[in-house]
Amino acid sequence: SGIYDARALQDKWQARWAAELPFTASEDPADERPRSFIVDMFAYPSGDLHMGHAEAFAIGDVIGRYRFQRGDNVLHPIGWDSFGLPAENAAIERDSRPDEWTYANIETQAGSFQRYGVGVDWNRRIHTSDPEYYKWNQWLFNRFFERGLAYRRDGLVNWCPQDQTVLANEQVVAGKCERCGSDVERRSLNQWYFKITEYAQRLLDDMDQIDNGRWPEEILAIQRNWIGRSTGADVRFSIEGRDEPVTVYTTRPDTLYGATFFVVAADADLADELCAPEQREAFEAYRSDIAKLSDVERQTTERPKTGVFLGCYAINPVNGERMPVWAADYVLAGYGHGAIMAVPAHDQRDLDFALAFDLPVRVVVETGEPDPATSGVATAGEGTLRASGPLDGLGKEEAISRIIEVLAERGTGESTVNFRLRDWLISRQRYWGTPIPIIHCPSCGLVPVPDDQLPVTLPEMKGAELAPKGISPLAAARDWVEVGCPDCGGPAERDTDTMDTFVDSSWYPWRYCSPRLDTAPFDTGTVNKWGPVDHYIGGKEHATLHLLYARFFTKVLHDMGMLDFTEPFARLTNQGQVINQGRAMSKSLGNGVDLGEQIDTYGVDAVRLTMLFASPPEDDVDWADVSVVAAQKFLNRAFKVMAEAGQGTPVGTDFSAGNTDLRRATHRTIDQVSALVEERRFNVAIARCMELVSAARKAIDSGPGASDPAVREAAEFIAVALSLFAPYIAEEGWERMGHVGSVAIGNWPEVDPDLLVQESVTCVVQVQSKVRDKLSVAPDIDAEELERLALASEKAQNFIGDKQIRKVVVRAPKLVNIVVG
Ligand code: ANZ
Ligand code: ZN
């Protein structure tokens, strides 16, 4: 039973915001306000908003609303990432169409976002499943294709047996499907890729632009590791009985003399080619055993090493030694050259293999650690080279330089750079996504659908027609599939795969800048004015997915002359999660908290304030530890102060006549809250607002009363500050104080530096060691200033009269003694 009725306020102000659209960005060229571009990661329309949305969007909203208050021209849009599997699975289950479920959920969520009071530009709302949007995915695909950045090839891909579709490497987490958790299998398929590897070095280099405290270090570290740049050497080994040498990539060419065997990726064509006839049967058997394993499983150190001898030998180019060639699955076909020189003494995977198959272990780097052959632990550290011919006695770096010289002289190797990053596999064998705009023509090959025939829209399909069957459901829509070739006019077929939905989210911020443009994905001039995004808010689960892809797209668009910047997000904040009783909320644990119920019980403002007050944005919020009731009580106190201030004085009251102590408290709060919001320490900013409410309360009750102008000054700032965190009560309080129009825009007050004095202390002024006056001064006042103030004191002057001042003793800030005589 608060003194304000949360629900009534919500209805009242929601209707006003909907009518007046105060959070609309301006494209007026004459508008010279600084621009701020604040973007929340797309919402995914599965069901209604939940506590996670409430947290993320409250954070983005504080950031956006603060810029509105500071007088910026703010672009804070909202949109939905509305393609994807959940819609399709729901449609199969309900025998309906994916778009029905999707757009119904979007409407529900949009209503909930409105009720939640997010200050966004509703005019720019976008949904990626609209043909007006995905047309531009197809247009961009065509540009990538022209530039050789979209290509098709056969390859072993990650296959989710549950979702019946391929997955990008980024979507495989510890060998499992990122979405459904099934064990990922391997399949050989002909698929579309985006050539992100061509941008690997730039993805690293451009981190300089954001590695300045503006992006979480953790995300940058994850990306660096995922891109995985290493420098090493390519070394060519000849194979007995074969003309062509085989190249291996190694980061430790200094250990070349320690190589005792040679391993080829079992699923690479090379293994097949090298296999001697007498080993053929064993090799084929091994190959079919491992066909289903993912890269991650192959490489985990926990799995026992498996492999098969291929019946041939490689020759070490530096010492002519004969090394048996094996095929094994721990060597990956898609990395380096798909073959390695094995140095068991210094590489753990090679050592495990050597011990499993009784192959020799030779130490060539003396590190002082126990012998790997007996300890089972490879020694990877620094040391001195031995048993290595010309490298003996050298340290690691010197040995690497020396061996590269030797290899270069003999023409058997050179230094090289390698990246772990693989090309981005974008084909999906599912329906609810952007159709790949390619036509397969038996005579012309791959023919892009001409731009003027875009979009290629999805044919209407529903229910069981969408069931996963290993090929795209679109393949069954024969009327849609069969088309004339755009080049030769002959009979041809559409590509039936759809694009990974991460394509949709790789460029959407730019669409917000000109959301209804129908001649291009976005207007370059407009985007260059807004971009890059000043502040991007979203979860850290996207470290190697969306955040990497969006960075890649930005660079490609830059190279196409469509963007003048190369990094999409100048600043990134990853919100924490809302958990309950120490655990992530889940159906199985039964610890879910329903956002709608929270809002119905406590009101939007109290829920938002609770989220933001509980912890810094990056930290998790445990709903078991918070008190929404306490937030509600605080809001009631704040509301009373605003209402009483409104009764005490009219709008436009001159604050300078107000009580100085309260004025100081207000200005100190303005100053601190500004800095705290800029630093994203919202919880501390809210604590400062709470203190100001208490100070104002005290001034009303025991001090000068509500008619004091300082009370109004404090209450007005309380309304302005609360507009970031608890927007409904802020609007209502502002109105109660006699203002017309929204509190939310351009009302952040200037700090009066004279009022920033920390607090005052009493300074005693003596004349001839007798107390004659008392001054109220800042605790950090300097001696010179204090002396000036003391000498200016009228009371002291009365005792000095016309006597000569001999000496002034100053002990700042407490005492000044004036000696006369
Ligand atoms: C010999 C060696 C000796 C290696 C040593 C390491 C330590 P990063 O750092 O990830 O780039 N390697 C090369 N190609 C591979 C493949 N296709 N599949 C699995 N492993 C492969 O790893 C480079 C190292 O991984 C290379 O350096 C190679 O093993 C192995 F003391 O060569 B090294
Ligand atoms: Zn053709």
Automatic annotation (TrEMBL):
CDD domains in alphabetical order: Anticodon_Ia_Leu_BEm, LeuRS_core
Subcellular localization, as worded in the UniProt entry: Cytoplasm
One Pfam assignment: tRNA-synt_1_2
Stretches assigned to coiled coil: none
Top-level lineage group: Bacteria
GO biological process: leucyl-tRNA aminoacylation
Protein name: Leucine--tRNA ligase
Family, per entry: Belongs to the class-I aminoacyl-tRNA synthetase family.
Name of the coding gene: leuS
Keywords annotated in UniProt: Aminoacyl-tRNA synthetase, ATP-binding, Cytoplasm, Ligase, Nucleotide-binding, Protein biosynthesis
Organism of this sequence: Nocardiopsis kunsanensis
Cited InterPro entries: aa-tRNA-synth_I_CS, aa-tRNA-synth_Ia, Leu-tRNA-ligase, Leu_tRNA-synth_edit, M/V/L/I-tRNA-synth_anticd-bd, Rossmann-like_a/b/a_fold, tRNAsynth_Ia_anticodon-bd, Val/Leu/Ile-tRNA-synth_edit
Record keyword Transport present: no
EC number: 6.1.1.4
Residues of the Methionyl/Valyl/Leucyl/Isoleucyl-tRNA synthetase anticodon-binding domain: 662-784
Top enzyme class: ligase
Residues where ATP binds: 587
Location of the Leucyl-tRNA synthetase editing domain: 224-407
